[in-house]
Amino acid sequence: MASVWKRLQRVGKHASKFQFVASYQELMVECTKKWQPDKLVVVWTRRSRRKSSKSHSWQPGIKNPYRGVVVWPVPENVEITVTLFKDPHAEEFEDKDWTFVIENESPSGRRKALATSSINMKQYASPMPTQTDVKLKFKPLSKKVVSATLQFSLSCIFLREGKATDEDMQSLASLMSMKQADIGNLDDFEEENEEDEENRFNQEEKAAKITELISKLNFLDEGDQEQTLTSSNPFEEADDPVNLKPVQRP
């Protein structure tokens, strides 16, 4: 019901799809004197979507051994696709926050969140390709962390735009005289549904292949049955009688 209400709220709004790429450069984490992280991971997330960096070793500083860094000699790129919505009469897009989470990865592979920070993607959206240097301060989630910052460059590329309507809203959009040639489905713009759509497409493709395979097997089975029915029966009289010569006894 909540998703239907959300779609109703988006009727008549414009939707723009952007590609963002975060290039991680340096991560600083200051810890308490009783603890040091094992390996650190940066997770870029929103709801159920997670984009994780590789795990990297934390290197303590020389002057302050409790203040260490992760430095990327070559920036590590993490890519997301974001859909921003806007009222036709508004100048700015609606807010949409994505969150960065610093996680500690133990030797066994178990992760625990250490600090978090969010950015509003509308502030970095642009119709022209842009690249912005960002230094993000984090809020500690653990008593073991004193402070943390992340330096990265954030690139933005505009992909496409359309109306914020999906398949369920097509008829309503038509009644409101909104259905135009350039109207895009919400599934093309709403990034939360993109993974579900991709999975559904893969499932439909697999189902089609299975159906095709079953049809071929049925066809082959029918051919075998016909061949069995038309094959010669040793107990059946032949259509053309065979002239047998009587055996002459001496």
Automatic annotation (TrEMBL):
The keyword ATP-binding does not apply. It comes from the Eukaryota. Residues 179-206 form a coiled coil. PROSITE patterns: C2_NT (PS51840). Residues 221-250 are annotated as: Disordered. This is C2 NT-type domain-containing protein. It comes from Tachysurus vachellii. Keywords: Coiled coil. Residues 8-158 form the C2 NT-type domain.
